[in-house]
Here is the input.
Amino acid sequence: MQRTTRIFSIEHIKGFKQNLLSWSQQFETALWLDSNNYQQQYSSFDSALALEEFTSIKTDYTNAFDKLKEYQTITKDYIFGYISYDVKNDVERLSSNNYDGLNFADLYFFQPQKLIFIKGKNIEFHYLKMVDDEIESDFNTICATKVTTTPSDSNEKIKIKLRIHKDEYYSKVNTILDHIKRGDLYEANFCQEFYAENASINPVEVYKHLNDISEPPFASFLKMDHQYALCASPERYLKKEGLKIISQPIKGTAKRLISAIDDDKIATDLSRDIKERAENVMIVDLVRNDLSKTAKIATVKVEELCKVYSFKQVHQMVSTVVSEIDTTTHPIETLRSTFPMGSMTGAPKVSAMKIIEKLEETKRGLYSGTIGYFTPENDFDFNVVIRSILYNEEKKYISYSVGGAITEKSIVEKEYEECLLKAKAMKYVLQNSK
Here is the structure.
């Protein structure tokens, strides 16, 4: 599919990005990806905005990867979208029967009519031929856009509820620990939902607030008519650059401290924490195994093991695992063979997914799934949907979930505290955004 490309140069990128996001809200479909200029090794652009469906695919989990494979192969263009966690049911003989207050489709991708990349101070417009005469006027309109704050319909403070209360959480984690003692699994990522009913928000304002206090490298804002994902993810699931595949699982979290000395110490303590390192190494082993299914022999390597990266809210322990695939390997097969990501399931993966499905109260849906894109050259990049607020405007239902890795060394009280730490940013912005 042919696109017309025009490049403009801008001095005040931060202001332009704010304008761009506000301007995008006139469209029914919009997907914004933002690295927040976080310095990381594997990066293709600073930000991207995909707008308006030309073609699309929306489906439940049944044969989802085969349908995506066909759509991506035929389209031969940029496509943007998401794969929900419940597409696990396409990969393995599993099911998802828990409560779902959001009703997102299991898989959705679209070929955008309008596509804008920010790279340094350059703004690249990649428009389909049918709309390429709008590039100049769109650029001028974006530059002239005045960002105004539109308050939500409701002035009432949003009341956050817990799907699993504290005592019940303790009981469920102890059940997982019993499974671990019996040898059914050795790590499980157990998640819980926080939610609000009959509640309205201004999605753009909440997203901006969440992004500003986190500034993560894999942020995204998704609008599909009345459904929204406001994502401040620090984690990459999978990236393809040519024949190289990169996975960067996160396991291990510590809060940031005000004192620089104390903050450095807690980061150092995290890097040496035996339990946190054990969690991370377990998932690295799982990722290595997943990547080996499509990798050329002897190409799976661990580039970084248990390296601590610092974000605005927390320190995180990140590992980088890479592999090389053959030219004949379809990009969808690499996704299929690694999905869902190990950092959000546990190990062994299938056993962990069965156990957490029984113990969790909420269908995960887009949470712990992935948002990203494919290029015309068959490259791709996908995040992990964590630190995210999901919103169904029509149902007035707001949801955010958090989880943690349960291992034999887990202390129930500390796992609960870690969940509350991870949930802190989402709760704060929901109760303090205009």
